[in-house]
Design brief:
The chain has five helices and eight strands; from the N terminus they run E-E-E-H-E-H-E-E-E-E-H-H-H. It binds flavin mononucleotide (FMN). The site of flavin mononucleotide has 17 residues, from strand 2, helix 1, helix 2 and helix 3.
Length: 191
């Protein structure tokens, strides 16, 4: 099972670096597997620590893929790291083992601290739609335009029926990125 989370790592300037990652739990440890190249990977290897942030503010997922990576954070309690203020819960991790790979290394972490900040309010379809679209945006260069258009039309239904202001804002950032990508392709074709 994969859980979609926001991983905060510490960058070369000692600031928080924010990026979405799907994580797994294996034998009591947390597995994070970044594709190379990845700033998060470099940070995780350099500082050997990470924070898993569980948040329902899907703007942070969409923002990471559309150039909006500055969100309020506070210092982690037990490790060198940062916690998103928007986290419903967070877990602080220490790197225990690295299985290196030229494409996608596997990083295994031990949980050293865990905090619940506020209650989970329930599932929201628009939030899921934003996360799905964010995954598509992270793969724009690999997907046929027809698939993107078809998925977009389907996901739009959940947005129209169930979104609040944060989901609509995140959706707008992602669809703008897709529109710009398509315009660039059409521009290239005409050139
Ligand atoms: C929901 C979601 C899950 C993701 N999971 C992964 C992942 O497991 N591994 C990965 O390399 N990228 C994943 N990505 C893409 C990264 O977030 C994206 O490439 C990001 O820019 C990380 O790069 P960075 O470490 O250089 O910031 C995911 C994106 C989304 C929206």
């Amino acid at each position: 099972m994969i859980y979609e989370t926001i991983i905060t790592s510490v960058d070369a300037n000692q600031q928080a670096h924010i990026a979405p990652f799907g994580i797994r739990e294996e034998d009591g440890r947390v597995l994070i597997a970044p594709y190379r190249p990845s700033v998060s990977l470099d940070n995780l290897l350099a500082h050997r620590s990470a924070v898993i942030n569980l948040t329902d503010d899907v703007r942070i997922f969409a923002g990471a893929l559309t150039g909006r990576r500055t969100w309020p954070v506070s210092k982690a309690e037990k490790i060198h790291g940062y916690v998103l203020d928007a986290a419903i819960a967070h877990r602080e991790l220490a790197l225990e083992e690295v299985k290196d790979d030229p494409v996608r290394p596997s990083l295994y972490f031990r949980v050293v601290h865990e905090v619940n900040h506020r209650p989970f309010k329930g599932f929201n379809r628009a939030q899921s739609a934003v996360i799905e679209l964010a995954v598509l945006v992270s793969r724009l260069h690999m997907l046929p335009i027809g698939k993107i258009d078809a998925e977009l039309a389907y996901l739009q239904i959940a947005i129209d029926k169930t979104a609040g202001p944060r989901e609509l804002e995140a959706w707008g950032w992602l669809t703008e990125t897709i529109d710009n990508f398509k315009a660039a392709i059409n521009g290239d074709n005409q050139a």
